[in-house]
Amino acid sequence: MAEEPQAHIVEVLLRDGLQTMVYESDWHVPTTEEKLELIEMLADAGIPELEVTGFVHPKVIPMLADASEVVQRLPDRPGTVFRALVPNLRGAQRAVAAGCTKLSSLIVASETYNKKNSNMTLAQNVEQIRLITELAHAEKVEVNVSMGCCFLCPYEGEQTEEHVLGLIETFVGFGITEVSIADSIGMANPRMVAKRVAAITSRWPELTLGMHMHDRTGMALANIVAAFDNGATLFETCTGGYGGGISMPVSVLGMGNVPTEDVVNMFDEMGIRTGVDLGAVRKAAERTAEIIGLPTYGRVSKYGTYQEFHEEALQHIDAPARGNSALQK
User: What is the pTM of this model?
Assistant: First the structure.
């Protein structure tokens, strides 16, 4: 009997979603208590992995200054993975000291963007990932690599397949078994994604490959399907659809993460198991919008599921059809 297809959802609202607020002074920055409330809601929704914060310098992203407290106060949810983003060894050390059990090390494939984002060359950043991996192995915590701009860079254009695969080869050599690649500007297309993902999964079939898709041109869901069909199994999403890189040349509003609720709904409709309660995620999206003061970008939150639409239609089955009566003759 064939194994049921499944997709692993990683929620990034509490890190990537909130970091966008460095540019948006009219948003309400969630308090530590509000962050913990959202974490509990999302964990209770059955999301198996949450990126709950980032151990970055508070002067760079002040809304993540409570990273240690958030990790120390995480709810007891057996089976749920709570991870934190770490840009360098110092951040990883802070995360481990706080009790974090999974580290997500960060790099951007584009040399130009990486320098703007982390003030490091690619070579320097790769060395930091090596040191982070050594620390993680010594402390017996999990570690992955999250790599931005793996398709298109706003400064350098398309990143070559050879370049991206070369970086992954280095990380695999460090002992990394999970890598997530990002369309950081949300402008990749399904054929581009399919080709790149297939190149990675065919070369490293045992590697857990994740996707971090933004949605500037509305192709994120199509890109996720293309990635899933070519072997990617992990999908980083953001309840409400917020988020974006802090080193972009323009406002990141409109290029936010693909909404968790839309991805879960899509996989549900396709018969692909996620283990996530869509209704609970939609409630978390509503609560997030209340807290930060910005409406959700999720389409399923606005328009509902097919089943809801169908049930509503059945209530009006005997009503006259709407539209131009002349066209109905």
Answer: 0.93
What are 22-55's pLDDT values in tens digits?
666 778 999 999 999 999 999 999 999 999 999 9
- Among residues 125, 226, 212, the alpha carbon closest in space to that of 171 is found at 125
CA separation for the pair 161, 151 (Å, rounded): 8
d(CA 278, CA 306): 13
Instruction: Name residues whose C-beta falls within 8 Å of residue 158's C-beta, 6 or more positions apart in sequence.
Output: 151, 152
* Contact in structure between 105 and 143 (CB atoms under 8 Å): yes
Paired sense of beta strands 152-153 and 157-158, if any: antiparallel
**H/E element holding 213?**
strand 208-213
Q: Which residue has the tokens 């481990």?
A: 96
Measuring CA to CA, which residue among 212, 204, 257 is closest to residue 231? 204
CA-to-CA distance for 153 and 197, rounded, in angstroms?
A: 17
pLDDT in tens, 219-239: 999 999 999 999 999 999 999
- Record the tokens describing residue 236, joined without a space: 């980083």
